[in-house]
Write a structure and sequence with these properties.
- Pfam families: ALP_N, MreB-like_C.
- This is ParM/StbA family protein.
- With about 325 residues, the chain is α+β, with helices and mostly antiparallel strands.
- The protein has two domains: about 150 residues, Nucleotidyltransferase, domain 5 (2-Layer Sandwich), CATH 3.30.420; about 110 residues, 2-Layer Sandwich (Nucleotidyltransferase, domain 5).
- It is about 30% helix and about 25% strand.
- The strands form two sheets. A nine-stranded mixed sheet has the order 3-2-1-7-9-8-5-6-4, sandwiched between helices.
- β8 and β9 form a beta hairpin.
- α5 crosses α6.
- The radius of gyration is 20 Å and the shape is globular.
């Protein structure tokens, strides 16, 4: 069974599931077993809020435990046996791909196999046969190859929780010298919106409320507060476009494909005054995970029978597809 996982700062995504990357440890059974793995005699409630930002996701056990939760959740969703073998497909920003791929693969494969744990009280015995790593953003093109067809140059903008990863494709192939990773993700936008609401109104709104308004969905909130949050979304978008321009990408000259959790916010805040050449937005935050999984299926001779996706051609790049 192939499982693609996108290990985001803000959320963990698989082909079918998405949940916040927060995790809380309990020595005894917690108030809920929902989305909770039990491993090594402890309980870990996943999906509660967000983690503190880590320069290195391998600094602690959190992302490994979140990986177990993602594997179990995906197995349950697809109705597979809780004792099985899986191959994982995960991603890294292309800017640090060569530096991080070996330690991150070892991090995900570190436990003796099979790995025994419980998820929501149900025992799992999982053998992780292998881990393949692919570039974030670029992997989404495995799902939507038509977006780059006949385009000599396209900019991929993966707007995540902490970083915005930029990559230019020339004739469908990543130009490695153009890869940039800006610490300008949606966490900054949300935090600044919350702070502005406090300054202007004295109210303390939650991350979930801010996300709801920035995504263009309504909720019970004062109109003044909504207006502040929407205005901050527009300010964030203008600053992001400016940062992209400073990084050497002229969005008035080349098309841009926006994806990731922040793509919805930027899409709703872009105006005609920004003068973008052409903008395509992939609103499904699970598209990276789905891309990882599809590519792994292609390299391993196809996905397992019953998978609802068929692998497509994925242009190779030097060094990217190595372990």
């Amino acid at each position: 069974m192939n499982i693609g996982i996108d290990h985001g700062y803000y959320a963990i995504k698989t082909r079918h599931l998405s949940f916040p990357a927060g995790i809380t440890e309990y020595s005894h059974e917690p108030y809920t077993l929902q989305n909770t793995p039990e491993y090594g005699g402890k309980y870990f409630v996943c999906g509660t809020g967000r983690q503190p930002i880590l320069r290195n996701k391998m600094e602690n056990d959190n992302y490994y435990l979140l990986t177990l939760a993602a594997i179990a959740g995906e197995i349950r969703h697809q109705g597979e046996n809780t004792t099985c073998s899986v191959r994982l497909a995960a991603g890294l920003p292309l800017a640090g791909f060569g530096r991080e791929k070996k330690p991150f693969r070892e991090y995900l494969l570190r436990s003796p196999q099979p790995v025994s744990f419980k998820f929501e009280g149900v025992p799992y015995k999982i053998t992780i046969e292998d881990v393949k790593l692919f570039p974030q953003g670029y992997s989404a093109i495995a799902i939507y190859p038509e977006l780059i067809r006949n385009e000599p140059s396209v900019l991929l903008m993966d707007i995540g929780g902490w970083t915005v990863d930029l990559m230019r494709l020339d004739n469908g192939v990543p130009n490695a010298s153009t890869c940039r990773s800006l610490e300008f993700g949606m966490i900054r936008c949300i935090d600044e919106a919350k702070e502005q609401v406090r300054r202007d109104t004295g109210l303390s709104v939650t991350d979930a409320q801010v996300e709801q308004i920035l995504a263009g969905r309504d909720c019970n909130m004062d109109k003044t507060v909504k207006g502040i949050i929407q205005r901050q979304g527009r300010i964030y978008t203008r600053r992001l476009i400016s940062a992209v321009l400073e990084s050497g990408f002229d969005l008035k000259a080349i098309p841009v494909i926006m994806l990731g959790g922040g793509a919805t916010v930027v899409k709703g805040s872009v105006s005609e005054q920004d003068g973008l050449c052409q903008a395509f937005t992939l609103l499904d935050d699970k598209v990276n995970a789905e891309g990882f999984e599809r590519i792994l299926g292609q390299y391993s001779g196809g996905v397992r029978q019953g998978c609802d996706k068929v692998p497509v051609f994925f242009p190779s790049t030097s060094g990217i597809n190595d372990r």
